[in-house]
Amino acid sequence: MRLHSNPPLNIVLFEPQIPPNTGNIARLCAATKCHLILLGKLGFDLTDKKLKRAGLDYWQFVSWEHILKAEEFFEALAPEKFHFLSVHYHKPYTEINPKEGDYVFFGKETTGLPKKWMESFPERCFTVPMWETGVRSLNLGSAVAVVVYDGLRQLGKF
Q: Among 51, 52, 133, 158, which one has the highest count of C-beta atoms within 10 angstroms of its own C-beta?
């Protein structure tokens, strides 16, 4: 575990299940100096070869932590500091208007984020629009990349 001070964004993966997705997102976080939070029970072991291979040799540059107690972590955050991404909402991610240090939550690949979190804060819920109705969702790594780079653009990081 390595921690950057003052990351532009905190990327929260709730109970990720697929090691290559998490490794890919870890590499993205290394490249953008965003902090990665793996929240709750993981669907893999942190020593998984696929996780390490997807992150290549960049893990030394990743600011990350694993927090087991998801509810406690979530409840400690001020609502204005977090944003949820879900296929079940229609407000586009381009309306997030992030602030430095905000938390951007992405759900596990199979079931997404806890419904009670999103139902409690529907104004904090966003989506990456998809025009083909036959496509259920984007790959988690792709969705995170789209949102992170737009957030960094809005924060004036380029």
A: 51
Q: What is the pTM of this model?
A: 0.93
pLDDT of residue 45: 81
pLDDT in tens, 85-124: 999 999 999 999 999 999 999 999 999 999 999 999 999 9
Long-range contacts of 108-117 (CB under 8 A, 24+ apart): 108/13, 108/14, 108/15, 108/16, 108/17, 108/43, 109/16, 109/17, 109/18, 109/21, 109/140, 110/17, 112/86, 112/87, 112/88, 113/14, 113/84, 113/85, 113/86, 114/14, 114/70, 117/74, 117/84
Using alpha carbons, select from 157, 140, 124 the residue that is nearest to residue 26: 140
Residues of the chain with pLDDT under 50: none
Tell me if 44 sits within 8 A of 69, measured CB to CB. Answer: no
- The order of strands in the sheet holding 63-67 is 63-67, 35-39, 9-14, 102-106, 82-85, 125-126
- In degrees, rounded to 5, the angle at the alpha carbon of residue 141 between the alpha carbons of residues 68 and 146 is 115
